[in-house]
Design goal:
alpha+beta; 5 strands; globular; binds adenosine monophosphate; binds zinc ion
């Protein structure tokens, strides 16, 4: 997907501040951070939104959960706490239609 900004980050066409990567996922700093730690975790596969997850993605979903766990520790927020969220669709304000998890922390986040 050449018109997808996160696919272009994955293929290296657009630069990003990458903090973690493996064969299935890539994680990089959000360009407009809402907290001192604001990381986006994306699957290398172009999956437009949470709605598009299928049974065949079960292993990937578990992989992303554990990657987020690891990234939280590496970013130093495992003990202080963090929030993981996914925006899905217009009412959630999803802007980029390539599935991504936000990992936020480094300050009290409120409710
Ligand atoms: P959303 O789709 O609402 O979950 O938000 C997309 C997020 O991607 C926003 O927090 C943006 O700041 C972030 N974003 C957009 N373009 C880039 C980019 N080139 N590098 C890093 N983060 C980005
Ligand atoms: Zn994409």
């Amino acid at each position: 997907m050449t018109d997808c900004i996160f696919c272009r980050i994955i293929d290296g066409t657009i630069p990003a501040d990458v903090v973690y990567q493996d064969e299935k996922v890539l994680a990089f700093k959000d360009i407009k951070p809402a907290a001192p730690v604001h990381i986006l975790l994306v699957p290398r596969e172009h999956i437009p939104s949470y709605n598009d997850l299928e049974a065949r993605h079960s292993e990937l979903i578990g992989h992303m959960a554990l990657a987020l766990n690891k990234i939280a520790a590496e970013q130093g927020v495992a003990e202080t706490g963090y929030r993981i969220l996914v925006n899905c669709g217009p009412d959630a304000g999803q802007i980029v239609y390539h599935l991504h998890y936000h990992l936020l922390g480094g300050k009290p986040l409120g409710s």
